[in-house]
C-alpha cells in the first residue's frame, strides 16, 4: 500500500536505496519482479505490514522471514532465505520485538477458517506479495520483513488502530534494512586456524561435566570455569553452581577450581570447609605457579607481567605475595623497584599478546641486565598460535570478528592483534552481537575465536554472514594443534 511505502521512505537514508511502491496482490508483484528496476538491483528487500497468524503475535511485532511460501502452492514449494540473524539484531537494537519464521503469500485476503488453516502450517504472517516479489531473486541478497497489523478477524472496530501501530514501526524497519543493504558488499570470509577451544579449556569443561555425571548436581565451581558466557550458561543448566569464593559453598560439597588457577590461601580455605575439591587448573597455568614458588624459594624478586584482577594473575600472585610484583604495562616496567637488581626474574600471564610482553620485557632487561626468563615460554601455545594465525588473516581483511566473551583475556588480545595488522576488529559473544554497521562497505571479513569460545559459535557467525549474500569461505591454517591433557584422577571413569 502507499502508506507502507511512505513509512519506509521516512526511515530510509537518501543514499541507502530506493523504495518502490509496487501495489497489492500477486499480479502486481510478478510484474514488479520482472521490471528493469528490480533486475538492476544489487539487493532486494520486501517490507510492509501483514496479518499475524500466531496468536502470540501482537500489532507492531516484526516477523523476518526465513522461508517464503505461496498459497495455493503453484511455484515449486517453500523457498528458504539466508539466515537473517544480523538483520534481526539490527531490528532488536531499535527496540522492536522480532520473531523469525515462515511468511506465506496468498492470492487474496484470508479470514476465519482460512487463517486457521495457514496458522496450522506453522507460518507466522500472511501477506499478498512477498513470495512472488522474491521468486526470481537469484543469488542476490534478499530479505523479507513484515510488521504485524491485524491479529484476528478483519474489519472489526480495532483493526484500523492496529494498522496504525504497524505503520509506525516501518521507519524503524527501513533504518535496519539500510544497514543490512550497506553490508551486503561482503563477498569473502577468511577463517583463522587454529581458533576456539584449546586443550586446557576442553579439559576444564570435561572436568565439570564428569563431576556432574559422577556426583550429580549441584557441583560448585569457584569463578567461571572458563571465561565464556555460553559455556557457563550451558553448565549452569546442567547443574553447575558458580560462586565467587569457597565460603559460598556448603561444607563438604564437591567443588571445582577453575582453569585459571587459585592461590594457596584458597586451597587452605577449601580444606577448612572440608570441601571435596577437583582442580581444573590448566597445566600451563600450573607451570607458572610452580615457577613462582621456585623463584620465591630461591629469594628472587619476581616480576609478573599480567593484568590486575584477572583470576590467573590473582592465583599466581598468591603463591608468594611478598616476593611477586605485578607489571601491567611498559610504564610499570619503567617504574617498578626491587631490593636486589641482580636477583630479578619475570613470569607472564599465559593469555597475553606476544608483542606486548616483548615490549615490557625489553624495558625490564634494559633496567635489570641480569633479568632471568622463565625456563620455557609462559604464554601458552594456544594463545601464540591463535595470535599468529589471526595476524595473517587480518592483513587481508577489511573487518575482523573475534568470537569470545568480554572477560576473556586471550579474546581481547586477538582484537588488538587484528587492529595492529590494520583491520577494524570487534569482539562478539555470538552472531547476535555483530553490528551490521561494522560491515558497511566491507568485502572481506576475517573470523576467529578465543581459546575459551565454543567452535559452534564460529559456525553461527559464518552462517549469519551468509545472510548478506553468497560468499566464498576460506580457512587459513597456520599450524595443527594436537595437544591433549589428561583429566585428574578424581573424575577419570
Automatic annotation (TrEMBL):
Positions that bind dimethylallyl diphosphate: 227, 260, 310, 408-410, 452
Biological or metabolic pathway of the protein: Isoprenoid biosynthesis; isopentenyl diphosphate biosynthesis via DXP pathway; isopentenyl diphosphate from 1-deoxy-D-xylulose 5-phosphate: step 6/6; Isoprenoid biosynthesis; dimethylallyl diphosphate biosynthesis; dimethylallyl diphosphate from (2E)-4-hydroxy-3-methylbutenyl diphosphate: step 1/1
GO MF term (any one): 4-hydroxy-3-methylbut-2-enyl diphosphate reductase activity
The EC number(s) this enzyme carries: 1.17.7.4
Positions of (2E)-4-hydroxy-3-methylbut-2-enyl diphosphate binding: 227, 260, 310, 350, 408-410, 452
Record carries keyword Oxidoreductase: yes
Organism ancestry: Bacteria, Bacillati, Actinomycetota, Actinomycetes, Micromonosporales
Organism: Planosporangium thailandense
Cofactor dependence: [4Fe-4S] cluster
Active site per database record: 312
Domain Nucleoside phosphorylase: 23-150
Entry binding sites for isopentenyl diphosphate: 227, 260, 310, 408-410, 452
Annotated positions binding [4Fe-4S] cluster: 198, 282, 380
Key words, A-Z: 4Fe-4S, Iron, Iron-sulfur, Isoprene biosynthesis, Metal-binding, Oxidoreductase
Substrates-to-products reaction catalysed: isopentenyl diphosphate + 2 oxidized [2Fe-2S]-[ferredoxin] + H2O = (2E)-4-hydroxy-3-methylbut-2-enyl diphosphate + 2 reduced [2Fe-2S]-[ferredoxin] + 2 H(+); dimethylallyl diphosphate + 2 oxidized [2Fe-2S]-[ferredoxin] + H2O = (2E)-4-hydroxy-3-methylbut-2-enyl diphosphate + 2 reduced [2Fe-2S]-[ferredoxin] + 2 H(+)
Protein origin, superkingdom: Bacteria
Protein name: 4-hydroxy-3-methylbut-2-enyl diphosphate reductase
Amino acid at each position: 500500500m502507499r502508506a507502507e511505502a511512505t513509512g519506509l521512505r521516512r526511515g530510509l537514508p537518501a543514499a541507502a536505496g530506493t523504495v518502490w511502491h509496487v501495489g497489492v496482490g500477486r499480479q502486481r508483484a510478478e510484474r514488479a519482479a520482472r521490471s528493469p528496476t528490480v533486475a538492476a538491483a544489487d539487493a532486494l528487500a520486501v517490507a510492509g505490514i501483514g496479518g499475524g497468524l500466531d496468536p502470540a503475535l501482537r500489532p507492531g511485532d516484526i516477523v523476518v522471514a526465513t522461508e517464503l511460501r505461496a498459497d495455493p502452492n503453484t511455484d515449486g514449494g517453500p523457498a528458504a532465505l539466508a539466515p537473517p540473524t544480523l538483520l534481526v539484531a539490527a531490528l532488536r537494537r531499535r527496540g522492536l520485538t522480532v520473531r523469525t519464521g515462515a511468511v506465506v503469500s496468498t492470492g487474496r485476503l484470508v479470514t476465519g477458517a482460512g487463517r486457521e488453516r495457514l496458522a496450522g502450517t506453522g507460518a507466522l504472517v500472511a501477506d499478498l506479495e512477498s513470495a512472488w516479489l522474491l521468486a526470481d531473486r537469484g543469488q542476490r541478497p534478499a530479505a523479507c520483513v513484515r510488521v504485524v497489523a491485524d491479529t484476528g478477524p478483519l474489519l472489526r472496530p480495532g483493526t484500523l488502530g492496529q494498522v496504525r501501530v504497524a505503520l509506525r514501526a516501518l521507519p524503524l524497519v527501513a533504518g535496519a534494512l539500510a544497514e543490512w543493504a550497506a553490508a551486503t558488499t561482503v563477498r569473502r570470509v577468511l577463517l583463522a586456524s587454529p581458533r576456539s577451544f584449546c586443550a586446557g579449556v576442553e579439559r576444564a569443561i570435561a572436568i565439570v561435566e564428569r563431576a556432574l555425571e559422577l556426583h550429580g548436581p549441584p557441583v560448585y565451581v569457584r569463578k567461571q570455569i572458563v571465561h565464556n558466557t555460553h559455556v557457563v550458561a550451558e553448565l549452569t543448566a546442567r547443574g553447575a553452581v558458580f560462586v565467587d569464593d569457597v565460603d559460598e559453598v556448603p561444607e563438604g560439597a564437591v567443588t571445582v577450581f577453575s582453569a585459571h588457577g587459585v592461590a594457596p590461601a584458597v586451597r587452605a580455605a577449601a580444606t577448612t570447609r572440608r570441601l571435596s575439591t577437583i582442580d581444573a587448573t590448566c597445566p600451563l597455568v600450573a607451570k607458572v605457579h610452580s615457577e613462582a614458588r621456585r623463584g620465591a624459594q630461591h629469594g628472587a624478586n619476581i616480576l609478573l607481567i599480567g593484568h590486575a584482577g584477572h583470576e590467573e594473575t590473582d592465583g599466581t600472585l598468591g603463591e608468594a605475595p611478598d616476593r611477586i610484583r605485578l607489571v601491567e604495562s611498559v610504564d610499570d616496567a619503567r617504574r617498578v623497584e626491587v631490593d636486589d637488581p641482580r636477583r630479578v626474574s619475570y613470569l607472564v600471564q599465559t593469555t597475553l599478546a606476544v608483542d606486548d610482553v616483548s615490549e615490557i620485557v625489553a624495558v625490564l632487561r634494559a633496567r635489570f641486565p641480569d633479568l632471568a626468563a622463565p625456563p620455557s615460554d609462559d604464554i601458552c601455545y594456544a594463545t601464540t598460535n591463535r595470535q599468529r594465525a589471526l595476524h595473517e588473516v587480518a592483513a587481508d581483511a577489511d573487518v575482523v570478528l573475534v568470537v569470545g566473551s568480554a572477560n576473556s583475556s586471550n579474546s581481547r588480545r586477538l582484537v588488538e592483534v587484528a587492529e595492529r595488522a590494520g583491520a577494524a576488529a570487534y569482539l562478539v559473544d555470538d552472531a547476535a552481537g555483530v553490528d551490521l554497521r561494522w560491515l558497511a562497505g566491507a568485502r572481506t571479513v576475517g573470523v576467529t575465536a578465543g581459546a575459551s569460545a565454543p567452535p559452534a559459535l564460529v559456525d553461527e557467525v559464518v552462517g549469519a554472514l551468509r545472510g548478506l549474500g553468497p560468499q566464498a569461505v576460506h580457512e587459513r591454517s597456520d599450524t595443527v594443534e594436537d595437544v591433549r591433557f589428561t583429566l585428574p584422577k578424581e573424575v577419570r571413569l
